[in-house]
């Protein structure tokens, strides 16, 4: 596309003809991409999220701007059709003043307003990062062609997003799909949200690691995460395997409740903990089958997410590229 080409809004499907700059702000990494109208990623880069002592909001914003400039340059500076961003919650929505739990430098940071000022004249849209993963999996991943999907991310936290009738469901405040705080054990462990026995309290990576350590797994190891736990499970470490069973059981119970409520076609599970493969998915399926007895619920398929680390970026781009299905908040 020549630099002078106008940004065009396609006549069908609400898609835009120009590529979109996609942003994914997480506690571990900042990632960015240029995504073509069909969903192909043409430039991608990531940096570790700076989170040191003394880091302020503006320092983090400068790092993010540098990353965005780099991927735009790597793609050959195409004219952009918009900017879509996923960010860890909580946030106000759709204004997107963000306070990501794992990024203390940003508290009430006006991400959408800053991106708008940086890319004047372009639509800029921000949604929860797990919602963007669910959108990506629905549009171009494991839920492609299906109308009703729950997308789940099981990593440092447990997040999700909900597509019903082929469209993203936002809820009253942009928080629909928050499956991490569905209660699976009413007298279970305390959750960061203040409650007890939420799915997230049991199945989040750090929760599993803490449980496994108490059971004797890698008690001296520093900075071990759910990813190492998943890989030890694949190597057959009995405590790691038991931790995955514990997570899988909780996830399966939560999915049984979710599909009775929402009548889902498919549940796609991604995130670091899901890398345990069958060691996680077998107990998920077993617990799901033990709790889902209505015929419509039992037909729900539970599958691994298909897009890997670019799911959130592809979903963020779809906030612009497929706005008729995935963006319900006006401009
Ligand atoms: Zn909770």
TrEMBL record:
Annotated PROSITE patterns: ROK
Domain of life: Bacteria
Gene3D superfamilies attached to this UniProt entry: 3.30.420.40
Pfam families xrefs: ROK (PF00480)
Family recorded in the similarity comment: Belongs to the ROK (NagC/XylR) family.
Name of the protein: ROK family protein
């Amino acid at each position: 596309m020549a630099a002078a080409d106008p940004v065009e809004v396609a006549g069908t499907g609400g898609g835009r003809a120009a590529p979109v700059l996609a942003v994914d702000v997480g506690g571990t990494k900042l990632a960015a991409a240029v995504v073509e109208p069909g969903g192909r990623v043409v430039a991608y880069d990531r940096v570790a999220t700076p989170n040191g002592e003394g880091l302020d909001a503006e320092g983090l914003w400068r790092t993010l701007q540098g990353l965005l400039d780099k991927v735009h340059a790597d793609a050959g500076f195409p004219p952009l059709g918009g900017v879509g961003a996923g960010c860890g919650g909580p946030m106000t929505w759709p204004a997107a003043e963000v306070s990501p739990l794992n990024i203390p430098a940003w508290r009430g940071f006006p991400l959408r307003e800053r991106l708008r000022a940086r890319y004047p004249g372009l639509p800029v849209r921000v949604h929860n990062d797990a919602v963007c993963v669910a959108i990506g999996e629905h549009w171009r991943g494991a839920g492609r062609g299906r109308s009703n999907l729950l997308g789940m991310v099981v990593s440092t936290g447990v997040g999700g997003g909900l597509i019903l009738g082929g469209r993203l469901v936002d809820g009253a405040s942009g928080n629909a799909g928050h499956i991490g705080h569905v209660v699976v054990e009413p007298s279970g462990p305390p959750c960061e949200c203040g409650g007890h026995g939420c799915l997230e309290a049991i199945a989040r990576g750090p929760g599993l690691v803490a449980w496994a350590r108490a059971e004797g797994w890698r008690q001296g190891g520093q900075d071990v995460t759910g990813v190492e736990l998943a890989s030890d499970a694949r190597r057959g470490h009995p405590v790691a395997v038991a931790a995955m069973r514990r997570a899988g059981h909780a996830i399966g119970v939560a999915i049984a409740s979710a599909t009775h409520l929402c009548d889902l076609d498919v549940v796609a599970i991604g995130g670091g903990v899901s890398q345990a493969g069958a060691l996680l998915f077998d107990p998920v399926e077993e617990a799901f089958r033990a709790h889902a007895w209505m015929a419509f619920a039992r037909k729900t398929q539970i599958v691994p997410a298909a897009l890997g680390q670019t799911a959130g970026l592809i979903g963020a781009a779809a906030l612009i590229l497929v706005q008729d299905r995935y963006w319900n908040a006006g401009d």
